[in-house]
Structures are given as structure tokens and as C-alpha cells.
Amino acid sequence: MMYISSKYWFTCIILYFHVVESSHFRGGFISWKPAENNQIEINYRVAFRRSAGSHMCDENTIDNGTINSGEGTLKCLKGCSGSITTMSYYCTDFSDIEEWTTGTNSIKYNPSTSSDNLYHFGFTGCCWITLVEGGSSWVMRTTADLNKRKDTGKINSSPISAMQPIVRFNYGCDYTLKIP
What we know:
This protein is 14% helix and 39% strand. The protein is mainly beta. The chain is globular and about 45 Å long.
């Protein structure tokens, strides 16, 4: 009987550490816009728990333009294939109190020709910060329609927003979030 009890507690401890250590991704977005020579510029913003791995950021990190190694690889998931870039980023904001770091980076990319000019770019990982629902593994993906617009003759750009990186809501309350 003691063996079963010890095995049970060992499993509980391992599960506890897995939950504690693995909830650090806080979200992000991917956008794109036309660039020169049939390229597009892919921009992304990611947010992480500040104390997790290589995500530490402070005023010195921002002032020195230090690049954080990030996590994972931005990949083309539809319309082309393969890795585009590592998800390294320049820290732009942080909070000591709320324990987050956020930053941006961009890359110019020349997608291969596809039949419909629709592309999916994204990256996946584990460890979405624990929420009321969700958590664990995640996918951050965008669909880029690179067909030329009839009104401008240029390819479409994704919508962008200049809102704060982290928004908190109290559970059980109704809110309206206006995205600028």
C-alpha cells in the first residue's frame, strides 16, 4: 500500500511542476504589409512571462536594443512551406508588477507563388499561460490574402492595432473592448 501512495504523490508532484513551469506564453499577433520587389514584410508581437527563460526585459534591454531569443519558428503553413525565421524579438515593454514582457520583430519575405495567393503564416508551442479556459498548447496564425486590390492595384495589408499588450478582465463580468 505504501508503494501506491508514494507513486501517487510522485505523479502529483510532477504534474504540479509541469503546470508551474510551463505557463509563460501570454499571446501575440502577426501582421503583414507589402514591401519592395514582390516581398511582404511580416511583423509580429509576442508576450511572455517576464521571468521565464530568455524573456527577461528591463530598461537596459530596451535601451541597448538587445534581441531576446524568443521561442519557436515562424513557418509558412499554407501556400508555401518551410521555416521563415526564428521568433526572436526586441523587447519594447515590460511590467515588474504584472510579470510580463512583450516585444516585436519583422522580416521581409518573398513567398512562392500559389494558385490563390492565400497564405497562412504562424507558429505553435506549448505553455499558454493558465486562463479561466484554455491554456497549454497554442497556435498563433494569420491568413494573408496577397491578391491585388482592385481599388489600389496593390496587395492587401493586414489590419493592425496600437492597443496595450495585456488586457485584464474580471471573470463573470460583461465588458466591451474597443480595439483602436
